[in-house]
């Protein structure tokens, strides 16, 4: 048994070697890097890593109106210019820039879009199929990436995913320079990019899970999960700014950035405390997320079916399916929707619509932090997530009905919608996944986090693929039908958590009656249920 455990530790050390950048830094300093410094480094690198992933995803939504502008042209754009006060001058400048550069630099045929997306009558459907290709490959790859992440060096896996993503994101933009008009070229490029991107989320959650404590897990991960919205915002701003030089640059620049960040990850990211030689007792003193490992348990990577059987994994995974269906429909179609909707009687330019859509993600930052803080305070993940999803239903309705009244109304409703839509999405993909990946039923096994994370987010990513695809077809007939689909999805997401919500409420009621409630069996995701008996 002892030799087997020693062999297991030897395999772990060989799989997770100290990064070259940290070795160099320690030589320059003349002393080992501290535990707290590594925690800060992990937070910064994983934040930048996944923000750059989302920046590359957001590009497509901004460029859609350039690839297929005919819908907006058919609707007509008034020559009159109405803009609100000075705090939105940036939108005005972008509109002027678009007007001054709306020639061949933006599209094939003098501003008429890009073949094949502007020629087919179902151009929006083709764009929806492009989204499906990316997100379908992403969802399929997620399950394999999580399984692989518990078995290989997460730093290498993350680096390969980021560099590959950068390469194929740039390849999509290269279709402009190479004058490619084959739909299957863009379809194939997006599929491969989706496969590379699937390695990102299981890797970063597992790395953060190796380093950080759980006493304030919801709040900490809610703040950290702002990388999603920061990436969406930066991706929108960069893509919108690059449109004046040609839509190709909207893909190439984010592709180069994520590849450079991937190089930094390879050189500097420590995936776990043992990589830098920190003793286990010191890690426990600093309250790492993972439980103290039992000395008599040899850690083995958890199987796919075994991970599905962990209490709480299935309902939260299915809930995330519908949460991401809503969130990713906004991610991929909101700029297109804004640019094709008369707001206060005027149509915004493609660049201005891309910039305005970032307010949805600003609301998402607030929603993620708020959901994490509330779930920590209430010690009730399911109740918090369900409350947000149910509250999103009337907000979606109001945004569709009143979002076109004026720019001010659009901004306010978009912000609130982003907060309520992204709040449960952020909570489930971070704190809940970490909770379930270290569930007491695993008996202290730390090699389940990437697999559980991949199952939950992979299932959610199937919904993320379905939503944009359906939107591509439905929006050609009615945007009201699209919002009906989104409201129905939010309703189902909340209902899927009803059993867990009931369990949390019962446990709360029992805790007020007795000093030591048996909550661990009822609340598989609350922080109190994570402690080992």
Automatic annotation (TrEMBL):
Residue intervals passing through the bilayer: 132-149, 156-178, 184-212, 224-243, 249-269, 313-333, 353-371, 383-402, 408-428, 449-474, 480-502
SUPFAM superfamilies: MFS general substrate transporter
A GO cellular-component term linked to this record: membrane
Keyword check for Ligase: no
Name of one Pfam family that matches: MFS_1
Protein location: Membrane
Topology versus the membrane: Multi-pass membrane protein
Main subcellular localisation: membrane
Alphabetical keyword list: Membrane, Sugar transport, Transmembrane, Transmembrane helix, Transport
Example GO BP: phosphate ion homeostasis
Domain Major facilitator superfamily (MFS) profile stretches: 44-506
Gene3D superfamilies: MFS general substrate transporter like domains
InterPro entries in the cross-refs: MFS, MFS_dom, MFS_trans_sf, Sugar_P_transporter
Annotated GO MF terms: transmembrane transporter activity
Family listed: Belongs to the major facilitator superfamily. Organophosphate:Pi antiporter (OPA) (TC 2.A.1.4) family.
Family matches, as PANTHER family: GLYCEROL-3-PHOSPHATE TRANSPORTER 1-RELATED, MAJOR FACILITATOR SUPERFAMILY TRANSPORTER 16, ISOFORM B
The protein's name: Major facilitator superfamily (MFS) profile domain-containing protein
Lineage, broadest ranks: Eukaryota, Viridiplantae, Streptophyta, Embryophyta, Tracheophyta
